[in-house]
Amino acid sequence: MDQLKSTLSFTGVAIGATATLPHHLTLNGKKLTPDSIRLEFPTFGLVAADDTNVTVRNVGSPGGACIALTEAWHPIERSFGVPPDDGSLALHLTPQPFAESPDPTVAPGTVTVTGSYTGDGNASQLILTGLTSPPKAIAILGGFGTGFAYAFANGNSSGPTGPCITLSGNNFNVLNSGTPSPNNPGQSYSWVVWA
């Protein structure tokens, strides 16, 4: 039976670890390499994919779960500006697959620090000091389900509906603002910093 799309549910993947699942993409009995892979969360990255498996890396999700949507394009979709495909599906774009996710080795920089904290409910709570350079990104996870927020080195971040992180030099703070807040009193959170 032909299968050109599949969803893979990765669970229990520790931060920094990889996991592999089969995707079962086939057409006319031929196993296919995905042309496109979309990952549910930016805290996972694609490591590799072939005509059998997809391998991902958890680069910052304490929950360790992510769904991947894999897709192989039907021959009718393979109009790449070159002579028509001969049915072998040998023609493809580069890279194959195209992954809609950060690179798992950088995502979007080297993962340098991870940690957790408990919200104190104050207007601002200092989480980390003494980074050697301003981070490229910060992810705050937990406390509001699968929500997350980024703070980039060029300014403050926005949470789901408002500012929630500030950067001051090489330090960062979480704020009791935004909806939901990453500093609700007594709530546990995890964070990841990318250099």
Could you give the order of strands across the largest sheet?
Answer: 1-8-5-9
Q: What amount of the residues lies in strands?
A: 35-45%
Protein structure class: mainly beta
Radius of gyration: 20 Å
Alpha carbon gap, first and last residue: 46 Å
**Main β-sheet, in a few words?**
4 strands, mixed
- What is the element string, with H for helices and E for strands? EEEEEEEEEEEEEEEE
Please tell me the total number of domains.
2
Average residue-wise pLDDT: 75
Q: List how many beta strands DSSP finds.
A: 16
Low-confidence stretches: 103-110, 151-155
Query: Helical residue percent?
Result: under 10%
Task: Note the overall shape.
Answer: elongated
User: How many helical elements?
Assistant: 0
3D structure, described in words:
The chain has 195 residues and is an all-beta fold. It folds into two domains: 5-100; 111-194. It has strands at residues 5-10, 18-22, 26-27, 30-31, 36-39, 44-49, 53-58, 66-71, 98-100, 111-118, 124-128, 137-141, 148-150, 165-168, 171-175, 188-194. The protein has a four-stranded mixed beta sheet with strand order 1-8-5-9, with no helix packed on it. Strands 10-16-12-13 form a four-stranded antiparallel beta sheet, with no helix packed on it. Strands 2-7-6 form a three-stranded antiparallel beta sheet, with no helix packed on it. The protein is elongated, with a radius of gyration of 20 Å.
